[in-house]
Amino acid sequence: ERQVKFVQDHISSTENNLSNLHQSFGGYVKKIAKLRNKSDEIATAIYSYSEKESINKSVKFCLRELAGILATVGDCREVQIKNLDVRVVREFGQYDTLCHNAKSEVRNICGAKDREHNRRRHLNRTKAEAEVVKATSEVTRMQKALEEHVDIFEKKKLQDVKLILRNFVMEELSYHARAINLFTSAYNCIDKINENTDLEVIVCFSYLYPFFYRNEITNKKISQCKGVHYLVVYRNALFKKLL
């Protein structure tokens, strides 16, 4: 009876622990999914900014490239989410059924064992010796079956926990390795923004707008104006003339 109680308690403890892991990893994956959605919103906002930007050329091109990189990061997160769900969350989730079946099997084995004990108590004297030997053999067989069942369950549990946790770590490493490369590219992309050149262009517009391309700029997007590329030259020439 002590052996049976130990087995039942151990299976219940395993069920509780793995259920907690299942819920925790499930919540983790849901949080990543929400983060992935927010990162998509950021990428969309950056791309929208790049489309509307018409004066600061380096900002425009870098923002467009950055939006693409962040979208790729989001795709990597999507792969991470799917793999974690399949290789971690669902694997832990199956133990709800496995533990339930294990406890049922233990109850079945114990029920057969109890029946053999009762049988031994009700034997008549003429058949006592032969039946006791038979009953003892049955009890021994049931006990061995219980031990084998526990060994199989425990071995599978240990192997699965090791494999599932390893899968989790490998998925995290895989995602973050790709993310590091992508965010490095994003950093280099942002570094290409030439604030001096873009500032010069806006200063040119503030100085020269009253004198040059009034109609052209009014009727077109600034990015389409033929004279935009020459504003710096005009400004410098104007300053030299004034001096």
From TrEMBL:
It comes from the Eukaryota. InterPro entries: AH/BAR_dom_sf, CBAR/FAM92. This is Uncharacterized protein. The lineage of its organism: Eukaryota, Metazoa, Ecdysozoa, Arthropoda, Hexapoda.
